Amino acid sequence: MTTTPSPTSEHTSEPKNAFDRFFEISKRGSTIGTEVRGGIVTFVTMAYIVILNPIILSTPDVEGTVLDGSAVAAATAFAAGVMTLLFGLVTRLPFAFAAGLGINAFVAFSVVGSVTWPEAMALVMINGAIIVLLAATGLRKMIFDAVPVQLKLAITVGIGLFIAFIGFVNAGFVTSTEQASPPVGLGVDGSVATIPTLLFVITLLLGGVLIAIKLRGAILIALVGGTVIAAIANLIWPFGLDFGFAGGIMSLPDLSLIGAVDFSFDISKVGVVALVMFVFTLVFSNFFDAMGTMTGLANEAGLADEKGDFPRIKSALVVEGVGAIVGGGTSSSSATVFVESGSGIGEGARTGFATVVTGGLFLLAMFFTPLTSLVPGAVAAAALVLVGAMMLTQIKHIDFGDFRVLLPVFLTATVMPMTYSIANGIGAGFVSWIVVNALSGRAKTIHPLLWIVGVGFVLFFARGPIEALFGVGI
Fold this sequence. Notes:
By secondary structure, the protein is mainly α.
């Protein structure tokens, strides 16, 4: 594995040709072979999103419409390929893009309960346009620096718990007891009593072992392994799985969801306040998650300075906003930078050429989307729990010694899974942070932006009584 250079390292190798000069391969102490290897490793590590995203986006919308899984898989690969190529060529940084975990969960489990899928994707595009504007004017970085880091980390932790809870429920590992107390329980009558749930447990443990030994592409390997085990189990104890290849494993990608957006929101069904808060939460999640991820990856690649800035940072932030527009326009949810890009960086990737390689592989993956339908729901649910567990690692950076920090962080992380809403968790964290700090002698430490956001969330939580008071959807 290539040793990561320090941020102050300088490489004096002269570029061999225009290609080398454009991507700064020699300048950053890399080689074409190293970049190709890093790009492939990043793709293998990220490829699970083509399988996972259609499963997350399978929730019926307010009208009961469900997105076609094969079309979502193709759109996911297409958006990831296009945005990864664009980012690699514009910024020449080794960061790859795909549908953002957490953002897609918010869209699937919060937004489409109030609007249709085309309307939800329109909101994602609006979110992207706002991020592009903020990035182009320099406001994005200013706002990022204003929000307490503890709240940023708590949101990541909360989304991790939320995604994991969804996985437990989808696998039948956690089920409703249909009683007031306890409302949920383990499996069937307190035990793992079905083959799908057992497959979930096996895949979860398999993935856990592979991640623990730091195997590249651990989640993807766990998904493939769990699917093979499920196929064998289905032959011995049939439980309704269909592993036929009637249509073959390769086909032309179904890109019918591209352009399936609707900006004509029905205000009589969803209030203006709700729409505004949906967009705000999308912007907030997209905004901070991407900036934090890019900063961490730049540090890992030795490309960041002592302030955390990295080459072409403004362009990177603008292109990341474009990812949300592309993701919404393809109905695959916001495409954003993936932390799994760190796997390619660990293999030596230092330039955008590795990113171009990853992007090309995602475009190739569009033609193999029929394979995504083979993964049983219980097996895919294990991947959700694994991803959730990895997101939980951010909790180690939070100082719990101050209750002014502890309570908002606790509420942010727990309200999300308990109310099945990322927006509720973020709102609980912001409002509690403001109240606890303001009334305990630290009002001056609260940035004016937080007060504005806090008022917005108070309106969001009270939108029902407010709408009833005025007799209209606001």
